[in-house]
Amino acid sequence: MGGHVGGGKGFQDRHIGPSGAQEEEMLSVLGYSNLKDFIADVVPENIVIEKKLAQVLDNAKSEVEVIDELRTLASENEIFTSLIGTGYYGTITPPVIKRNVLENPAWYTAYTPYQPEISQGRLEALFAFQTVITDMTGLAISNASMLDESTAAAEAMTLARRTSKAGDDAVFLIDHNVHPQTKAVVITRAKPLGIKVLEVDVLAVDPFLNFFGVLVQYPDTTGAMDDFSDLATQAHSKDALLIAATDLLALTLITAPGEWGADIAVGSAQRFGVPMGFGGPHAGFMAVRSGLERALPGRLIGQSVDAHGNPAFRLALQTREQHIRRDKATSNICTAQVLLANMSAFYSMWHGPKGLIEIAERVHGYTAALATVVESVNKSYFDTLTIKVADAAVVHKMAASLRINLGIVDAKHVRISIDETVTASKFAEIVSIFGAKVVSAQGSGISPAIKRTSTFLQHPVFNTYHSETSMMRYLRTLADRDLALDRTMIPLGSCTMKLNSVTEMEAVTWPEFASLHPFAPADQSKGSRKLIAQLSKWLVEITGYDAVSLQPNAGSQGEFAGLLAIRNYHDSRSEQERDICLIPSSAHGTNAASAVMAGMKVVVITCDEAGNVSLDDLKLKISEHAGKLAALMVTYPSTHGVFESAISEICALVHEAGGQVYVDGANLNALVGLAQPGKFGADVSHLNLHKTFCIPHGGGGPGVGPVIARAHLAPFLPNHPLDATAGPTTGPGPISGAPFGSASILPISWAYIRLMGGAGLTHATEVAILSANYMAARLKGSYPILYTGEKGLIAHECILDVREITKVSGVTVDDIAKRLMDFGFHAPTMSFPVPGTLMIEPTESEDILEMNRFIDAMIAIKYEIDEIIEGKVAVEDSALRHAPHTVGAVASNEWDRSYSRERGAFPATFTGLIPGELIGMKGKYWPTTGRIDGAYGDRNLVCSCPPIESFA
């Protein structure tokens, strides 16, 4: 203990929940005397790594030492005022939002709101975000956020292709003044789908050209704002869709795209209170006109009613989602940017419509004043000017001397984007760069023809919380409606809801990391680039691969990047005919959707009774598609929660047939320190940094999904047109808008690896596997365990088979999930990968007391199920079917249930099965809504706040 700077326990002992004594207790239950023998019986001998991580990675550092190292890295970054624009802008995060949301585990440790009864707080915030987007864009419906502006534009292109009636020979048009990173991401996405993209001046399009969609930037990357209403008419005459990439702050002053004929609007909500962060994470957005809502990708928050007839929020139209539709999905996206979307929604509430207009008018006023004293080429502008100069190099040098970055255009032009952070004194410095003096603005860059006349954000939620007291209380009220890791374990299989420690999180809000523009000169981001290089090296050493790209900003994007690398590898070898992707029936839904996006055809491999990939079916499908096999996608350990000993043989069979092996990294938490995909036969993987490497789930995003590959695929990893260091010149183009994706949250994973060291990471994996087996052993008397390995053991998660219980009792996995809320728990993963089952993953962060609390709750629920089976109570009258129980229901004068109020609300006390000290561990958590009617919400789709007229 004395070896740790700062004294006390080491970080490993804080991150890993079970103590040494608790590990021994769990091992005893499983019949083992030590961890080494136990792990040897779980992990197949043929994949165990010879060289331990402790020999490869540096020793663990203390929390004090790691923060000091991060401070040193941060000091190597230089904070300039970056007026580069191009979709990224300085903004001021209101401190009340920074402290109470961004830095609050009640918000950042929550899971995706698939269980709406315990997610009402963030669902309300996302509902408000959707309202912001629909109000600002003038379109009917918005989703709950996209990954960034560029990927949103790419998704809009594929939406247009799916829904347009234009013929198969129709092309996709991009205006020449769209942001360059967006152009590049759209082109990357279009190529494997066989979509032809043309870059044109959209205001001079050949009237005979057949196109299915057109993308414009409004205002465009030069700063100009064109009237695209005639273009919209032209597009609609061809059954094509017009997509406007737009700016929310500008839309407070200029006509909404939906008002001049746009079918789809996309963009980024970054400048609504979310730091630039060297490129992310930020909430992208997409809004569509009426009629396109069922083709809209991503998540959609809708309003429904609960069992008591009260309004309540939920995810709407989930049948669109990739995990259900698989290779027929509208998109492979299975995440959003919830935490950042919430921040932007609260920013909109904090300022309200008047405040947002004041910010926009100040920004535009400074821009107009600058246009008065420089030679601008813009005939119109909101915040951005392209300025003609004698020598651009001299101007950039002058700006740099004042610690200001301007946008690079060419030798005779520079670009500048004024933002919210510019003050009068800063503006005087800006004017001096051009050898001018501050004068009053003469005129405006917004013509009357495009000036906004419609109102927006009139709902009371945007016109109430303008004092810090009221906003603080509102945020607390919302947080209290949710259930996150700060209250209880979240035992979701496949999602690895582990501790997101404060020390790991601390650097995220430091200005040296948060204030960087992704396209600022590289010498200003030396610290971030060093951190990225170190994290990349560590990930390579952990996984046994050779090269990594941190650009993909979600697991789905990492999957796409990995499959694209395989696709381009085959193309480079003149094997374009290889387009078959084999995927086990148990796979994550994103796998199939990603394969289709990469231009492949999906062929499903069956699984045997033990949950393993069927070797017989694999061999059959390989022989059926000989010469056409591109890839096998497989999750390891399997999605069924077992280590398949045949994994090396599976990889060899695919390689012999000329294919490549993609190992989905979702379950890497069972491998770190024990086995390496890059060594047991895999060619490429994506890694979920928001699972294995401690980036928090944020209520449904952000995520980071690096793609990592062996040397022969390294030339085909993502690159970026605006940063030559971000990938190989032979790469397919960018996957995400920013060169290094969601760079501002990479310090979290960097800190986790540094704090744990190789030995700590290995121990974490061992404890995760131990804890899962302990839970399975204690629960199997109540619920059958569906799949186990050869020695009756599982990996880091287990599947409880509820199907027979449902058959004899009528109690469904939904009933169990909702009843767990009365015990103060989030449900395990429901009906995935097998319908009618529950998948549980405790992670290494939960101690034995919390695991026992959950186990005892599950046993108590089985006690209630047995009462139904024995005929003591009908399932329709049971506490299970009426769960969850709200304060309103329990305190009501009306109570006609067959069980007591106490039993409904305090189920832990009635059976006598749960020890008293476990009952008292947690204060009672009250769900704020009863069970929500999903079908009603889909039939009556309401996805944004009602207009103010409805309150009259």
UniProtKB/TrEMBL annotation:
UniProt entry tagged with the keyword Oxidoreductase: yes
Domain Glycine cleavage system P-protein N-terminal, residue spans: 13-434, 462-713
Entry keyword annotation includes Oxidoreductase: yes
Reaction it catalyzes: N(6)-[(R)-lipoyl]-L-lysyl-[glycine-cleavage complex H protein] + glycine + H(+) = N(6)-[(R)-S(8)-aminomethyldihydrolipoyl]-L-lysyl-[glycine-cleavage complex H protein] + CO2
CDD domains: GDC-P
Enzyme Commission number(s) from the entry: 1.4.4.2
Keywords of the record: Oxidoreductase, Pyridoxal phosphate
Cofactor(s) required, per the database record: pyridoxal 5'-phosphate
Gene3D superfamilies in the cross-refs: Aspartate Aminotransferase, domain 1 (3.90.1150.10), Type I PLP-dependent aspartate aminotransferase-like (Major domain) (3.40.640.10)
Signal sequence extent: none
Glycine dehydrogenase C-terminal domain segment(s): 764-885
Domain of life of the organism encoding this protein: Bacteria
Entry's family note: Belongs to the GcvP family.
Function: The glycine cleavage system catalyzes the degradation of glycine. The P protein binds the alpha-amino group of glycine through its pyridoxal phosphate cofactor; CO(2) is released and the remaining methylamine moiety is then transferred to the lipoamide cofactor of the H protein.
Record's protein name: Glycine dehydrogenase (decarboxylating)
Lineage: Bacteria, Bacillati, Actinomycetota, Actinomycetes, Candidatus Nanopelagicales
